[in-house]
Structures are given as C-alpha cells and as structure tokens.
Amino acid sequence: MRKKPISFFLSGLLAAAATLLLPASVNASTFNYSSYSQWRALMFDTSLGKFESIAKEPDNRPNKFDWSTDYCSAPLVGSTGLTFDFSAACRRHDFGYRNVKSLTYAVSAEQRREIDEQFRSDLRYSCSKRSIWQRPTCYAWSETFYRVVRLVAGP
C-alpha cells in the first residue's frame, strides 16, 4: 500500500518538531522518540498514585526504564517522618533523573528544573493526604526537601 503525501509531510513535521524540543546534547539520528515520550508521560502526565502503582508492579511497568530508587537520601530524615511520607515523590524523582540521563545522555538545566518542579508538586500532593493538623509541618518539610534538591541539582 502506498503512503499518501500528507502522511509523509506529517511524519517529517513531527520529526522536525521533536528534534527542536530535544536538548542540544542529544543526537537526533539515534534518539528513541517513543521512549522519551513514554518517559515524559510517566513523569509529568501520570498522577503520583498511578505512577506508584506502576512502579510497584514489575510485571506491569515498561522494562526499558530504570526503576531503581533509593527514595529520599536525606541524611537523618530519610523518606518518612512523623508528619510526612515522601517515598512516592522521591521514587518518581529518582525515575526522572535516572531515565532522562539514559535517554538524552546529559541533563539540561531546563530538564532539571522541570523534574524538580514535578518533585515539588508530588511532595505537596503527599502532604495534602495528611491530617489537617500534620499538613503545615508536612508542607514545611516538603519545601525544605525541594530547596535542598534545587541547591544540589544546580540551576
């Protein structure tokens, strides 16, 4: 079956747009657009609860990604405390960094900011599930975690 000219045009347009959206360090001729799109969907378009359920089920998650995590490697505090549990947020944050590096070979400042902003949102979401009495302390912890990550991650 012969492809219509419009499908060639749309394919070319999609490839050009994807190339423009990639970090400068990526070699567009060897880049896997499908994996990058799936990573972005899991990272930014999937609820934290859904992401966590995917991450916990090895048989149901895409095996092309690095799902390893050390959760929050915060000295003395860890991933959980009396007023917070940031395990899921830290898992997704690890997923973000570990896979963007393997997909794009380098992490741009924009990608770091975007992953860290998702982390902030996930931390705050985790706090919203706490009792009304624990939320203020949890939100304070969430902002502390976020700011330390930004400080360590760079601009």
Explained architecture:
There is one protein chain. This protein has 6 helices and no strands. The protein has 155 residues and is mostly helical. It has a single domain, classed as Phospholipase A2 domain (Phospholipase A2). The protein starts with a helix and ends with a helix.
Supply the number of structural domains: 1
What is the CATH homology-level superfamily?
Phospholipase A2 domain
Low-confidence stretches: 1-31
Helical content (DSSP H or I, runs of 4+): 55-70%
Q: Provide mean pLDDT, rounded.
A: 83
Shape: globular
What is the distance, rounded to the nearest whole angstrom, between the alpha carbons of the first and last residues?
Answer: 50 Å
**Percentage beta strand:** under 5%
Any guess at the CATH architecture? Up-down Bundle
Assembly type of the chains comes to single chain
**Count, helices:** 6
Helices and strands, in order, run as: HHHHHH
**Biggest β-sheet: count, sense, barrel?**
none
* Secondary structure: number of strands: 0
CATH topology: Phospholipase A2
Descriptive keywords:
155 residues; mainly alpha; Phospholipase A2; globular; disordered N terminus
SSE layout and pairing:
Layout: H1 5-21, H2 33-45, H3 48-56, H4 87-104, H5 109-128, H6 135-153
Helix pairs in contact: 2-4, 3-4, 4-5, 5-6
Brief digest:
With 155 residues, this protein is mainly α. It has helices spanning 5-21, 33-45, 48-56, 87-104, 109-128, 135-153. The chain contains six helices and no strands.
